[in-house]
User: What shape does this take?
Amino acid sequence: MPAGFEAPYPAWMARFDEGAAPLVMAYFGVQHPGSLPPEALAPIKAMLPAHPAPRHWIEAQCRDGAGYDTRIIIAYWQDAKSFTAWRQAGGFDAWWAEPARETEPVGRFMEVVAPPMERLEVVYSPPHLPEGAGNLQSRVSACPVAEHAYWGSARDRIPASQTDPLDNSAGTLVLTRNGARVRVEPGRNVCMIRSGQDWSDTTGEERATYLGRVRPKLVDGMTYLRDEGLPIGCFSCRFMQVLDGVGAATEKTFGHAYFRSLGALEHWAEHHPTHLAIFGTFMHEMAPLGDAMQLRLWHEVMVLPPESQSFEYVNCHDRTGLMGAAGP
Ligand code: HEM
Assistant: This one.
């Protein structure tokens, strides 16, 4: 942190108990080249309430880089034990293994990450509105975190960075095909970010500035990462609209991206014109609102050991998720 630095606006962090097990974040996706039928995720939704149900889940929608309509349920469990128990109790494992999955008129995928606590940081504002893994926190940080709003602050918020460079010089993805089923192993220290925006409480000039000036830059940045990000280490990027659970759009979006490493993500954020345009417009036109700002920004960033990642695709096109970065 630069000496004497004070962040121009506050942010809080999710805190978890000492020794807490890795959280599980499961992305259950479905895709179609045209428009998905509204009930495309109904089988997953029907299973979600089974015990032990996820502590938090959302549904979101986007068009991916191949133009496929994509819908995802993102569900959070407190630990791997409860996720495994749910997969059994809810019938998910049996349903996922059925040969019928391979001949459906839609593609399906399941991307699961389970970041160890010392490799995860979750930052949000205001403190009473947690997002993402913040919904599973033990408590919110007692005060706004000092370590934010400067380059390198995400790394400073990840405890493991104190003793580990968290790099990944190899960056090789291994793809294994079994008929219509594909698995991708991205290897060590792949970095995932889900970075959210909520403008539902903005009004007047603030709302006009966000929607008219900041959001278009965000769309440009997410489109760049999605379509041209691979050479700079972005394996996959989806810019998604959060749905309200019955299919209607909310005033919340997020970028969900996998990078070869934390360093590659940091490099894009600090140096690439697309994030600098988002950052610069925001800092110049919105950050001066300080505490009065109603736009809510949050993110969760994690650096994943190999055993904390599982990526499975059934019947999906070749550029889905991490498949595009893994090659044929
Ligand atoms: C409206 C949307 C966004 C705005 C206004 C925004 C703005 C900012 C700002 C002001 C920072 C400074 C650091 C901080 O507060 O800790 C930052 C950092 C960062 N942003 Fe964004 N951003 C947005 C979207 C995104 C998205 C969608 C991604 C990636 C998918 C992203 C990736 C990052 C990363 C990784 C950092 C941390 C860099 C570091 O700690 O060195 N941002 N952003």
In short: The mean pLDDT is 95. The helical segments are 42-47, 80-89, 92-97, 153-156, 204-228, 262-271, 273-285, 323-326. The radius of gyration is 19 Å.
